[in-house]
Amino acid sequence: MTLNFKTFVEAEKRRLWDADDHRKRSVAKAAKFNSFKGIGQMDISDIGVRDVHQFFDHLNATGRSDTTIIRYGAMLTKVFRAAKRLKDIPEVPEFTTPRAAAEVRPMYFTKKQVLDMCDYFDDSHPEWWMRHWIIIGCKTGMRHGEILTITPETITSGISVSGNTYHEVYLAKTKALTDRRVAISTTARAALAALGDCPKRAHYDAHKFYRAWEEMRVDLLDGDARYVFHTTRHTFATDMANDLKAPISTIGNAMGHRSLKTTARYIKTKSEHQHALVEQL
Fold it and tell me: Consecutive sets of 10 residues in the chain, 281 residues long: mean pLDDT of each?
């Protein structure tokens, strides 16, 4: 008995997409793919890379943007991965989607996206520890490689002149070829503690990290390849500038930049802040 793409999606749609609106949009995309040429008559296991690429070419020829095609690709990847897990197909087709245009979306994580990512890597997820990485990245602006150098010996705490407890991480060798001390919040300190104050030794595996990140990106971020872990660093700079009104020199110092021109490239203007300013004119 043939199991076609549409039948599989209908059977698995509630497990594939939790939110009603996301599910509705994704099922509509799946139906469009299923109706393209003879795909609806094929068994899902017989759909190949060439079939997907021809569908993408059709979307392009009918005026669909690269961003739209990327979203179709994210839907297809999610469905094929589920089909492989259920052993309905032997392998996930390794098709290629267009590269997204850089100006389509500002590259930082919103508060909601950060919360959604942390919820995604909850205690039931095999790579639950990644939510602590996300928190550390967004709250400190440290690079992936810098986080890997943290050990209990590099973390210090003390009492400030105002009587408050402070925490910081000492980074000996940074990309800028200088050492620096990174102030860390109570939230980031708790995330480090959850990793035993040594992220490299606490469950970390590079292959698992990037595989889990890619799966999360497909599930939550439309498969947009521009959302990488380094985006947490952009998020730190953007939050500092927009939410805390921190001077660019303070942000640059925290991030270890030698030039404020580099820092400026990390700071994005949040639309809600831009709208609030316009209202004051």
Answer: 90 88 89 93 95 94 86 94 95 85 66 96 96 97 94 92 88 76 94 96 90 92 88 96 94 92 88 66 62
Distance in angstroms (rounded) separating the CA atoms of residues 104 and 66: 10
Closest CA relative to residue 71, chosen from 128, 18, 26, 38: 26
The conformational region for residue 240 under phi > 0 = left, psi -120 to 50 = alpha, else beta, is alpha
Predicted structure pTM score = 0.64
Element holding 183 (H helix, E strand): strand 180-184
CA distance 160 to 163: 5
In which residue are the tokens 């690709």 written?
A: 73
- Long-range Cβ pairs for the range 272-277 (8 Å, 24+): 273/242
108 vs 232: CA distance, rounded Å: 7
Under 8 Å between Cβ of 167 and 150: no
Tokens 């793409």 belong to which residue?
A: 5
d(CA 111, CA 184): 18
DSSP label of 161: T
Between CA 204 and CA 224 the distance in angstroms is 24
Scanning the structure block, which residue is given the tokens 């709250």?
139
CB neighbour class for 25 (10 Å; exposed up to 12, middle 13-18, buried from 19) = middle
Please tell me the distance from the alpha carbon of residue 232 to that of residue 2, in angstroms, as a whole number.
Answer: 44
SS3 state at 236? helix
Tokens in use for 228?
């990488």
Q: Are 115 and 223 in contact (CB under 8 A)?
A: no
Phi, psi of 229 (to 5 degrees): -60, -30
Q: How high is the pLDDT of residue 275?
A: 62
